[in-house]
Amino acid sequence: MDLNIKIAKDLLKIRAVFFRPDDPFTWASGIKSPVYCDNRLTLSDPEVRTDVETGLKTLIEENFPDAEVLMGTSTAGIAHAAITAHLMNKPMGYVRSGAKDHGRQNQIEGKLDAGQKVVVVEDLISTGGSVLEVVDVLRNAGAEVLGIVSIFTYGMEKGIKRLAEAEVKNISLTNFDCIAEVAAEEGYIKPEDIKRLIAFRNNPSDESWKG
User: How many CB atoms lie within 10 A of CB 98?
Assistant: First the structure.
């Protein structure tokens, strides 16, 4: 079974990602969304957690074989970076959303030397804003950011464009389109809902997908 399909099945099974096109969720921005995503739930299921962390290890080994350090995003990426780094026997740290206001006032936690080759570990990519802030912090500290690995990506145009402009590659275990197809195949949603879900993904601010 392809890794992206395997992870899609896992995320649907534990409701880390699930679809509700007929009764959408409301995001903090006010946008109506047919999808809910909480990849933190992967940590609570040992079988799924193993699939995710070994999957991230595989992505890094295949796409960023020169990686020297893994850096998690705060807070969702920290646990995944730690477990994956342990599996790979590599150093790990994480980047805070802002510098501490006490002690050494660190924003990067863990040892990082200038010139080290880093892979950022994130749980979810939507518009790409938060993960690119982490990339900027690491680059400003002198790290060579090889790329990003993540559990799930929406594949939103804004996120793809931002990543391209920042010249950083993201590789995800699975994606919105794959999960939508698996959800239809396994009866979580109706097959005709896929077109509505893709319309949402293509333009979240346009609510015509609700029909």
Answer: 11
Separation in Å, CA 44 to CA 38, 47, 121, 169: 11, 9, 18, 28
Chain mean position to CA 3 = 15
As a whole number of angstroms, the distance between CA 175 and CA 152 comes to 5
Mean pLDDT of the 134-138 span: 96
Mean pLDDT of 133-140: 96
Contact (Cβ atoms closer than 8 angstroms) between residue 182 and residue 197: no
- The answer, yes or no, to whether the previous bond of 75 is cis (omega within 30 of 0) is yes
pTM: 0.94
Q: Is the pLDDT of residue 60 over 60?
A: yes
> What integer is the mean pLDDT of 58-78?
97
Residue ranges of alpha helices (H) inside the chain are 3-13, 46-63, 78-88, 129-140, 157-165, 176-185, 193-202
